[in-house]
From TrEMBL:
Family named by the database record: Belongs to the NAD(P)H dehydrogenase (quinone) family.
Keywords, comma-separated and alphabetical: Oxidoreductase
PANTHER family in alphabetical order: NAD P H OXIDOREDUCTASE-RELATED, NAD(P)H DEHYDROGENASE [QUINONE] 1 ISOFORM 1
Official protein name in the record: Flavodoxin family protein
Residue ranges occupied by any Flavodoxin-like fold domain in the UniProt entry: 1-173
Single Gene Ontology MF annotation: NAD(P)H dehydrogenase (quinone) activity
Pfam family, one: Flavodoxin_2
InterPro entries: Flavodoxin_fold, Flavoprotein-like_sf, NAD(P)H_dehydrogenase_qn
Species of the source: Leuconostoc litchii
UniProt KW S-adenosyl-L-methionine keyword: no
Domain of life: Bacteria
A Gene Ontology term for the protein's cellular component: cytosol
Length: 193
């Protein structure tokens, strides 16, 4: 299995960095693994287009080619990111805007409402961390990575999300709570198939 991890956090000495480390340590040794670290790559999230740089031609952009190739290579994607202001970080939103584009991730079809899902056959896992208490995240704010799951990956691109793991109230969490969560991540990583 070919696994692509899309890591979105400014540094590695953090809960998100620990999640990445635990996953890398516990994935099957027979798997091929690549990591995209958006902050380390200094990924430019600004989606810019004009008459010379057309939006419908983003699938040809050289600056993002290595990311499209990594996604094409993969069987399973793992997204690791925090929730900031009730959503994914801007750098990840920009990554999605610039990489999961028409003619690469999806293609509109004449006389059909839904696009052809060009990344069908792949699976994904989403792991999010946030400071919000779980009940507010679930019943009031409701997104917390689920827009990425439903609307982008599944509905537009055909990537089936097999795992959605959330760790809430991170700022007030104890070392024991974090340890229990990281054990859950370890078990998750060992069971990816």
């Amino acid at each position: 299995m070919k696994i692509l991890i899309i890591y979105t956090y400014p540094h590695h000495d953090s809960l998100n960095g620990s999640i990445l480390s635990v996953i890398l340590k516990n994935l099957n040794n027979n798997y091929d693994i690549k990591v995209i670290d958006l902050y380390k790559d200094k990924f430019n999230p600004v989606l810019y287009f004009d008459k010379q740089n057309k939006r419908r031609e983003l699938f040809l952009a050289n600056e993002t080619k290595k990311y499209r190739e990594a996604i094409s290579w993969s069987d399973h994607l793992i997204f690791i990111f925090p929730i900031w202001w009730s959503s994914m970080p801007a750098i990840l939103k920009g990554f999605i805007d610039k990489i999961f584009v028409q003619q690469f991730a999806y293609a509109y079809q004449k006389n059909k409402i839904m696009p052809n899902k060009l990344l069908r056959g792949r699976t994904a896992s989403i792991i999010v961390t946030h400071d919000t208490p779980w009940f507010l995240a679930k019943y009031i704010q409701k997104d917390y990575g689920k827009v990425l799951k439903r609307q982008i990956l599944e509905n537009m691109c055909g990537i089936k999300v097999t795992h959605f793991i959330s760790f809430s109230n991170t700022r007030k969490s104890s070392l024991k709570q974090r340890s229990v969560f990281l054990n859950k991540i370890s078990l998750f990583a060992r069971n990816i198939k």
